[in-house]
Amino acid sequence: MQFNLDLIGLIVFIIFCSVAGVQILYYLFLFSRLAFYKSKTTDANYNQPISVIICERDEADNLVDNLPGVLVQEYPLKHEVIVVNDNSADHSKYILDEFAKAFDTLKHLELKQEAKLIMGKKFPLSMGIKTAKYDTLLLTDADCVPASENWVKHFQSAYTQGIEIVLGYGAFHKRRGLLNRLIRFETFHSALQYFSYALAGIPYMGVGRNLSYKRDLFMKNKGFSSINMIPSGDDDLFINKVATRKNTAIVVDHEAHTLTKAKVTWNGWMRQKYRHYTTTKYYQFKHKFWLGLYSISFGMLFPYCIAAAILFNWWIVLSILAFRWLIQGIIFYKTMKKLNESDLFPYFILLDIWMFLYYIFVLPSLWRKPKQKWN
Questions:
Q1: What is the average pLDDT across 105-132?
Q2: Is the whole model's pTM more than 0.70, yes or no?
Q3: Domain assignment of residue 7, yes or no
């Protein structure tokens, strides 16, 4: 009996070492790419015109709060702001009419019919792209505001030779309360992954709150035609399809972020995250493999840590876990600083444990039927 317990303890310890080792390798060789990333200096003189596109439905209040931040961008050459009003039942049209009187860069497109066979935000976004005058597109949402008046400049400067996609960071306003910290940490953790994967040459997603790509890239790939029947995915699935090692860049400067209000209830946030994770099953196999390996190893880490501490040797097990937290802490410190989330760093160990529980909460989204409407 003692022999069996010793053997079981050894096996559990080996499994724990394996999953901890996988986690450490991800931080050392993948996530470190963002931690030590330095923005490339460019001689770009902002000589390319740009079209900013926003889709909205019944978001008159958000337009009042956030659209001015888009309209007052410091950009010396031609640019336009296109707001696609998708069948709004509120007074969005009148708000946009008033803004258009003051800003000649604003154009608003009124959609009065639903697209029956195109789900989610894809149809209004496609119409906005079709209407755009310029080849460089910069996308955000009506509930987002640029972090600075240099938002457009930073994205345009990232378009060096061969670049067709630029990924940005869609942050949340900092507010008091535990839920706000949890939401911002999950957002940071997601960005740590998609930025690092892009820097490693295997980009797999972007966020529609802060994303830029070339109109020609959209057209030659027939837009969203391959994912029209999937309610979500206008950002991550499209990027998953068209992004490559050579055509994708990132911009992480604080002035290039967008900001939006975080959900104030747990249920509201979970519904939002469920909708997002329903698209991951459509990712390319290589992306699902590497993302899955990270998630599975993370999901196994703490259960096997506890089991190994009980059945094998607690101080050896905790020493390995502490080493992982040391590596993780260095990466988190540098990446949180880059993404303006440094206030989360003192809690990173607690937030790391929380992410284990979060993965359990969102696991059902992999089997749920996605929501049909985008707003």
A1: 86
A2: yes
A3: yes
